[in-house]
């Protein structure tokens, strides 16, 4: 077990290193941050000063070594734009994104599982067909469009929900959360739903497929033959087994929800990491881009690890030490 | 204050009669929710030269010289100023001004501020250039300060409109982070900072001790909503009272909506085409070929007839009306009418495709040539669509044009390395002809600090000569005539191809009025309830 963990951590370090090199070269290839940040009427002396101030006067490989030297000590550099440590900037925004992603994931399970279950148990009913048709829409409609439509309908036309922002927050465990206040919750609903839409459809489809497959299994037939109530058959025998793929996929999807909440965050002006990264890319704020991607890589690796561990708990056939 | 409560109460009663809940009206009178399209990156007024930062700095701090909505200099923390000698400017400071923390404002604070400008660590775009002409500062008395310069420097008052004054005591050791955290965001301006969340929102409250016109609102919630469609939607839904950078596609709808009002003014930002002047007449320009796609062997853009043909081939009115939905004014120069050193006799070039074809033939290109027009697609209002329109118009006179649009981050670097033959770009001028001339038209020179954004490398000795004189001429009238002469030459020689000057547009719920600013700054003190006027 510990050997396994160690190996995973070494892999993670390798990925992070490779990724930082790619970002360095990538940002260098896209353009010059100073050209973007500097006032257009700045003269040559001022430009040279800015280049030196941001450490961009060194050759790229030296810039990278400077970065690496500091990164080992836990310093991922200062944002060109905000003049604050990049890591701190991102961590400040992280709770907002985490909250949004968690709300979306929980929402996807709460909505997706029952609908998927229903569609699996009664595949030929009208309701099931409607659910399946709806899930196709969930898959195929682009997030930014759905987000704007949600705003137009629920904020502009009906006036039920606030259109943008995070609303009132309350402190819990040292972080600020919006789901603890009514105002915050009302701000959370639309962005969370928008982000969850794709995942709801995914959960519905996974659950339905699982249910349909499991219902034909011998042990289910046997349970029914034994005279168990349909309720017990569904929620004990079937449900437990279909949870495995659902958990795997939802877990893996959680990572991408956080990483790719960019669109939803910018449409709903949600002050999370996604909005920060898109702003940073626009001005080539390299320290923030690098730090953000490093965090995301670490997060993906952690999530994969957690999913693997949960998998082994749920399914006794999967033994980690056999890997 | 008492008066505003009473007028609010009156407004509340009259609106109640109209069937609106009184509480809502009250809240709206007191807090202004503003949505801006560009993020503010710092509350440190000397850290990052950027319009959104300047707008917010104008709310917290004051300058010696303020500018009115039309960008004319008006007294700020200095009540008056004059050149007392050829190389000495004297500023008489306003008495009884206090910072938000109660400290008095004196000449020492000005000295401290000017000294701080070049010394802000890690600044990606500093304000140091405004301190550079000053070789010595002399505090005559607590309310009089003199700036000594090496050479006559007529732009001193204009420079001072960019420098926000700090307190020598409060800010002695203040770092950019202290400003961003709100701790050090203490000025003499009309608003105090209550809280700041980077890239999300800034909350302000009114500075009741402000020396000038008191703001109408007790509190301001200044939110950064970068997505265009969302910003409009938030205004429509009532979450925001006021937005800037209204997308042109929403203009028609907002104009029709009886609950909305717009405020607009012709701005100072010219959209123009930069041309390749770097390659000599007998060299190839990178994106120009003959009609078969082979190198041309010469740079047609060195011929003024070709440049003129390209300019009059463009139907500027059509672009302003169709692509820009009316939110632009065709122009043949950098500055709009009414601005210092606007050239009265240079109009927007008339659309004349026949004349353009004749000029091309005269220049030796009866069958035209091929060119690529490069453009950013995320920088200026409708930038890539304007480029496409220009491309079609050029193709119509025989210059077969391909349009290549890309993100600003890539575009600006390549344009700065003279990789393009023609490019679409914009320039936000200071209201003084020397600003665009010096940065875009003048010959690139490190020593003089000229040509910082002269990406086409235009060079004209005559213009350079006039500009050199104008930059040391203290007589404003003579100076204006010089700048006009230089700009007229630039227009005749088609140094760049001006297209249009953008209209700055803000939108608000009915019941508010706004004084639109030519400099694009979105500031809460410019918004007032319509009834209070």
TrEMBL record, chain A:
Location of this chain's protein in the cell: Cell membrane
Transmembrane domains' residue ranges: 12-31, 100-121, 133-157, 177-198, 242-269, 289-314
Domain of life, per lineage: Bacteria
Pfam families (UniProt xref): BPD_transp_1, BPD_transp_1_N
Domain ABC transmembrane type-1: 94-307
Broad class of where this protein is predominantly found: membrane
Protein family (similarity comment): Belongs to the binding-protein-dependent transport system permease family.
Official protein name in the record: ABC transporter permease
From TrEMBL, chain B:
Domain of life: Bacteria
Keyword Transport attributed: yes
UniProt keyword terms in alphabetical order: Signal, Transport
Signal listed as a keyword: yes
Leader peptide range in chain numbering: 1-27
Subcellular location: Periplasm
Annotated Solute-binding protein family domain residues: 74-435
Short name of any one Pfam family annotated for the protein: SBP_bac_5
Similarity field: Belongs to the bacterial solute-binding protein 5 family.
Protein name as it appears in the record: ABC transporter substrate-binding protein
Organism of this sequence: Falsiroseomonas tokyonensis
């Amino acid at each position: 077990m510990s050997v396994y963990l160690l190996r995973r951590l070494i892999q993670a370090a390798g990925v992070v290193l490779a990724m930082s090199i790619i970002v360095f070269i990538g940002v260098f290839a896209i353009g010059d941050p100073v050209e973007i940040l500097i006032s257009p009427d700045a003269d040559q002396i001022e430009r040279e000063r800015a280049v030196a101030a941001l450490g961009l006067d060194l050759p790229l490989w030296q810039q990278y070594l400077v970065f690496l030297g500091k990164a080992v000590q836990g310093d991922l550099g200062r944002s060109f734009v905000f003049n604050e440590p990049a890591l701190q900037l991102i961590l400040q925004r992280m709770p907002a994104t985490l909250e949004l992603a968690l709300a979306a994931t929980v929402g996807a399970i709460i909505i997706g599982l029952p609908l998927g279950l229903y569609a699996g148990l009664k595949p030929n009913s009208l309701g099931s067909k409607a659910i399946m048709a709806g899930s196709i829409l969930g898959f195929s409609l682009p997030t930014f469009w759905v987000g704007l439509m949600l705003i137009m309908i629920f904020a502009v036309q009906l006036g039920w929900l606030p259109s943008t922002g995070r609303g009132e927050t309350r402190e819990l465990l040292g972080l600020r959360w919006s789901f603890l206040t009514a105002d915050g919750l009302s701000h959370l609903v639309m962005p969370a739903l928008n982000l969850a839409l794709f995942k709801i459809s995914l959960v519905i489809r996974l659950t339905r497929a699982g249910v349909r497959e499991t219902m034909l299994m011998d042990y289910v037939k046997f349970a029914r033959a034994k005279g168990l109530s349909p309720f017990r058959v569904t929620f004990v025998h079937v449900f437990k087994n279909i949870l495995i793929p659902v958990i795997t996929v939802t877990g893996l999807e959680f990572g991408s929800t956080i990483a790719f909440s960019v669109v939803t965050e910018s449409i709903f002006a949600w002050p999370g990491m996604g909005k920060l990264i898109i702003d940073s890319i626009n001005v080539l704020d390299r320290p923030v881009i690098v730090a953000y991607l490093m965090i995301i890589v670490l997060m993906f690796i952690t999530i994969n690890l957690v999913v693997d561990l949960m998998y082994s708990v749920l399914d006794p056939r999967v033994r980690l030490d056999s890997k | 204050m008492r008066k505003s409560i009473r007028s609010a109460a009156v407004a509340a009663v009259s609106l109640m009669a109209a069937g609106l809940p009184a509480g809502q009206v009250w809240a709206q009178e007191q807090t202004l929710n503003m949505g801006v399209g560009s993020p503010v990156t710092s509350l440190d007024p000397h850290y990052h030269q950027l319009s959104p930062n300047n707008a917010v700095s104008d709310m917290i701090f004051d300058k010696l010289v303020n500018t009115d909505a039309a960008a004319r200099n008006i007294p700020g923390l200095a009540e008056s100023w004059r050149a007392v000698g050829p190389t000495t400017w004297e500023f008489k400071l306003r008495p009884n001004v206090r910072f938000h923390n109660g400290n008095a404002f004196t000449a020492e604070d000005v000295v401290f501020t000017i000294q701080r400008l070049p010394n802000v660590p890690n600044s990606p775009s500093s304000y140091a250039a405004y301190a550079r002409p000053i070789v010595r500062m002399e505090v005559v008395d607590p309310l009089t300060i003199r700036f000594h310069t090496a050479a006559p420097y007529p732009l001193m008052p204009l420079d001072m409109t960019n420098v926000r004054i700090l307190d020598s005591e409060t800010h002695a050791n203040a770092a950019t982070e202290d400003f961003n955290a709100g701790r050090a965001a203490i000025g003499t301006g009309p608003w105090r900072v209550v809280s700041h969340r980077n890239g999300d929102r800034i909350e302000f409250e009114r500075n009741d001790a402000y020396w000038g016109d008191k703001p109408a609102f007790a509190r301001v919630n200044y939110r950064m909503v970068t997505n265009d469609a969302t910003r409009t939607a938030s205004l429509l839904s009532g979450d925001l009272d006021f937005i800037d950078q209204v997308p042109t596609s929403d203009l028609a709808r907002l104009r029709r909506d009886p609950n909305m009002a717009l405020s607009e003014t012709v701005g100072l930002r010219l959209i123009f085409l930069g041309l390749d002047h770097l390659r000599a007449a007998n060299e190839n320009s990178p994106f120009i070929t003959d009609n078969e796609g082979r190198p041309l062997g010469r740079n047609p853009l060195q011929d003024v007839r070709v440049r003129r043909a390209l300019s009059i081939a463009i139907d500027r009115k059509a672009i302003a009306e169709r692509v820009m939905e009316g939110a632009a004014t065709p122009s043949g120069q950098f500055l709009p009418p009414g601005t210092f050193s606007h050239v009265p006799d240079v109009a927007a070039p008339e659309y004349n495709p026949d004349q353009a074809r004749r000029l091309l033939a005269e220049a030796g290109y009866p069958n035209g040539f091929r060119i690529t027009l490069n453009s950013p697609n995320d920088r200026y209002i409708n930038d890539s669509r304007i480029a496409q329109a220009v491309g079609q118009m050029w193709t119509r006179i025989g210059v077969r044009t391909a349009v290549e649009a890309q993100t600003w981050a890539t575009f600006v670097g390549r344009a700065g390395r003279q990789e393009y033959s023609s490019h679409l770009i914009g320039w936000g001028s200071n209201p003084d002809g020397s600003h665009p001339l010096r940065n875009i038209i003048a010959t690139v020179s490190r020593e003089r600090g000229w040509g910082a954004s002269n990406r086409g490398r235009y060079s004209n000795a005559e213009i350079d000569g006039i500009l050199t004189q104008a930059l040391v001429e203290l007589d404003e009238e003579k100076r204006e005539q010089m700048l006009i002469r230089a700009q007229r030459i630039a227009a005749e020689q088609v140094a760049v191809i001006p297209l249009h000057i953008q209209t700055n547009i803000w939108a608000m719920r009915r019941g508010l009025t706004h004084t639109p600013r030519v400099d694009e700054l979105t500031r809460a003190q410019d918004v007032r309830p319509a009834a209070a006027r």
